DNA sequence: ACCTGAACACCGTTCAAGT
DNA sequence: ACCTGAACACCGTTCAAGT
């Protein structure tokens, strides 16, 4: 009768859909994102979404690009030392993904044609080449940073272990006696592993830089 | 009638279900694994699966443990040099996951109570501690290897870029001019990045070992 | 242009019924 | 014990109908 069918002002926009979808995925996981549930959250009926996106995957694509757009690539600009740039980029990259762990599997399928993903790849690859890395090596560096960041954001290492001592019978797993304690130190363990690994990776790479001296041990 | 209801010999077994599920996931992805589809592949009706697993997630759990069981941890045994052990473990770990990329997101949720996952964690942690690493550092090493391996198996870096030059407009992405070529060198790029990253990581770690001299530049 | 409800071919899971 | 079909509450997506 009155508020039905088409209102004078659109109820939806791509932006509102993406924002709500990201909030839903963050709060309840990828499985909770159904078109019907998302539509309900937006106060419309399910099929309405198809006026703004051709497919549910299209929505996820836009969500993924929003997340990548949060990554700060400014430190990769020409002129900065490559180690400093790489460290800052990787930390920002991880922070962005760790804030939205549930879309990481989707995100890790690569930039494809998503603008924020391509902008990041352009900045990272360009930054490494400008710092003197041969293109093939610059590509590998971008790839290994993606591996490390995506892997660390995909799921907590520490929370992978159950918070229950009886799960780790010393007869079966003699060296996992403390494993049940990992869960409660989740953040410390995961961030420590990422940070230690990142610094080790950069030191190891420094040994391979065309104009390298010895790596700094800090 | 004749072949209906319960046959004298069970039609299904946990093992047959897991094997078929893994084959289906490998061939068509996680989304193709529905209980109805899996049951059809096994020649039974959907609900039959619930006589052997309490839930679809339980099936995936068993599939994940099967994949981890393929990882060779023998090089982590006490007595081997920790670098050699770590490299061999990480390579075997990556090979196992890369053979079944579609279950990596599920796998990366950690070992939980899965026996093969726990056996691997026990061997890796124990191996690093036996090699002189303090327990906290050994934990971090296990975590960072998981990050790197899972991230690299989760999705190809190279195939993340579309095989279409027009996707990467030089005006928008000035340094991605060759990006469309990545797809065709997918395996070389991804394996090169993993191998380079792994060696860099180990060299970087060697600088931090309690009894370390300088890292070898291989 | 942008929303609606109805409809289609799917899901995971439960359950009573068969042997 | 182990399989079946029917049923329940869901899915993603299409489409004709409304304004």
From TrEMBL, chains A, B:
Gene3D superfamilies: Tetracycline Repressor, domain 2. InterPro entries: DNA-bd_HTH_TetR-type_CS, Homeodomain-like_sf, HTH-type_TetR-like_transc_reg, HTH_TetR, Repressor_TetR_C, Tet_transcr_reg_TetR, Tet_transcr_reg_TetR-rel_C_sf. The keyword Transcription regulation applies. The keyword Transcription applies. Residues 34-53 bind DNA. One of its GO terms (molecular function) is transcription cis-regulatory region binding. Keywords: DNA-binding, Repressor, Transcription, Transcription regulation. PANTHER family: HTH-TYPE TRANSCRIPTIONAL REGULATOR RUTR (PTHR30055), TRANSCRIPTIONAL REGULATORY PROTEIN (PTHR30055:SF151). This is TetR family transcriptional regulator.
């Amino acid at each position: 009768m009155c508020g039905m069918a088409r209102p004078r002002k659109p109820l939806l926009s791509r932006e509102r859909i993406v924002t709500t979808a990201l909030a839903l995925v963050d709060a309840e996981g990828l499985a909770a994102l159904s078109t019907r549930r998302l539509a309900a959250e937006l106060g419309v009926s399910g099929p309405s979404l198809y006026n703004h996106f051709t497919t549910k995957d299209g929505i996820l694509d836009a969500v993924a690009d929003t997340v990548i757009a949060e990554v700060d690539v400014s430190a990769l600009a020409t002129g900065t030392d490559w180690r400093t740039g790489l460290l800052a980029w990787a930390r920002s990259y991880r922070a962005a993904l760790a804030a939205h762990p549930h879309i990481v599997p989707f995100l890790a399928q690569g930039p494809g044609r998503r603008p924020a993903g391509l902008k990041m790849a352009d900045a990272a690859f360009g930054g490494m080449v400008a710092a003197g890395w041969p293109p093939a090596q610059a590509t590998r560096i971008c790839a290994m940073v993606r591996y490390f960041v995506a892997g660390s954001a995909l799921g907590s290492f520490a929370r992978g272990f159950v918070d229950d001592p009886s799960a780790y019978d010393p007869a079966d797993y003699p060296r996992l006696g403390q494993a049940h304690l990992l869960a409660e130190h989740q953040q410390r363990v995961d961030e420590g592993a990422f940070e230690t690994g990142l610094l080790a990776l950069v030191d190891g790479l420094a040994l391979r830089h065309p104009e390298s001296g010895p790596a700094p041990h800090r």
